[in-house]
Amino acid sequence: MSEYEPKELSKATTIPSSWYLDPAFLDREREKIFRRSWQWIGRAEDVSRPGDYFAASLLDEPIVVARDHDSRLRGLSNVCRHRAALIAEGKGNGKLLQCPYHGWTYGLDGRLRRAPEMEGVEDFEIDDVCLPGVRVEAWGPMVLGSLEASGPSFRETAPEIAFEVERAGFPIEKMKFRERREYVVEANWKIYVDNYLEGYHIPMIHPALYRELDYEKYRVEAFRNHATQYAPLRPSSDEDRTYPKREEDEKALYYWVFPNLMLNFYPGNLQANAVIPLDHERTLTVFEWFALDGEDIEAPSPSAIRCRSRTSRSETRCRRVCARTLTIEDDSRCGGRTECTSSMVCFTSI
Ligand code: FES
Ligand SMILES: [Fe+2]
User: Fold this and answer.
1) Is residue 102 in contact with ligand 1, taking CB distance under 6 Å?
2) Which ligand sits closest to the CA of 304?
3) Which of 118, 263, 305, 329 would be a feasible disulfide site paired with 255, CB 3.0-4.6 Å?
């Protein structure tokens, strides 16, 4: 970390290439960034009724999210306290969770209720055994989890988002899951985030969008734990626009939430995008769409489109080139427009 000194935006440079290339750096990021952050792990509709549960992965930790019979949302380790088998798979509804290996059975509060043939075992008290808890939180149609034992809730990490979404009147609590897509990008996860957070590449990579976007007004604003994007379209009467100007686009809200979640809100739907490092040079990107009943999920706003499949080939190629360039030009750094460096506000202030 000492290789880089944050400066004011007009003097900012890109972060050192070793931060992208060194596999050990990702280990540090997992420890210092990801384990301390909120991660999107599932859907609220899968735990809407008492007894509902789903198995999930929280930064490679197997967990189970359950709605207990007091309607409280709980996150539990999904690893059996006996011999570490996975307890729950997929999703379901029930009063208890039973380990498929030897049948130890847990309540939705994590407490062990039954352990076959363990009667009379010395120093074994069924009441002493409990699945460790994990912090989970439902927000709109999403469930998020954190491995930090304490600290701010997801909402508290970027309170402006909940406030602005509520003020805009987006009924996110009523949105239901519609579609999921996954892509593996051959680049460090930060290259994906860097790309998402700057409009600097729009003239070169998205010429059609550039023609229709009011580029001079495009801006990214960085806050402590999130960034917002403003990408207005030019007024035009042209029916054949690639990106038709719609009232919805004016109301849309685009957020990046530190470190790896993008949320694009429209009046009737939400597109969520998580960026998950597989290793230091491969990244899983997960897209899910949520919408109100009867709403079309396709809300083709410029910012959302920029990360969708129609542009992904050229962007993926550029990210690969980026990755190679970083390898070659190990010591070089380029100064950038202020937009380029906005994502670094969060990285460098940790
Ligand atoms: S590992 Fe779960 S009951 Fe044995
Ligand atoms: Fe793009």
Assistant:
1) yes
2) 2
3) 263
CA 177 to ligand 2 centroid distance, Å = 25
Pick the range with the lowest mean pLDDT from 89-103, 180-194, 318-332: 318-332
- Cβ–ligand 1 distance for 101 under 6 Å, the answer yes
Q: Please report which helix (H) or strand (E) contains residue 211, including its range.
A: helix 207-212
Q: Where are the domains of the chain?
A: 9-16+159-348, 39-154
Query: Is it the case that residue 333 has pLDDT exceeding 70?
Result: no
CATH number of 39-154: 2.102.10.10
What is the value of pTM for the model shown?
Answer: 0.84
> What is the pLDDT at residue 230?
83
- What does the pLDDT look like over 74-83, one tens digit per residue? 999 999 999 9
Residue by residue, DSSP assigns 295-347 as: --S----HHHHTTSHHHHHHHHHHHHHHHHHHHH-TT---B--GGGGTTHHHH
Q: Is 100 in the pocket of ligand 1 (CB under 6 A)?
A: no
> Which atom of ligand 1 is closest in space to residue 85's alpha carbon?
1
CA 62–ligand 2 middle distance (angstroms): 33
Helices (H) and strands (E) in the chain, counts: 11, 17
3 state SS of 193: helix
In whole angstroms, give the CA distance from residue 321 to residue 341: 19
CATH topology of domain 9-16+159-348: Naphthalene 1,2-dioxygenase Alpha Subunit; Chain A, domain 1 (3.90.380)
* Residue pLDDT, tens place only, 102-151: 999 999 999 999 999 999 999 999 999 999 999 999 999 999 999 999 99
Which of 78, 81, 96, 102 for mutating ligand 1's site (highest number of atoms within 8 Å of CB)? 102
111 CA from centroid of ligand 1 (Å): 14
What residue type is 236 in one-letter code?
S
Fold agreement (9-16+159-348, 39-154): no
231 lines ligand 1 (CB under 6 A): no
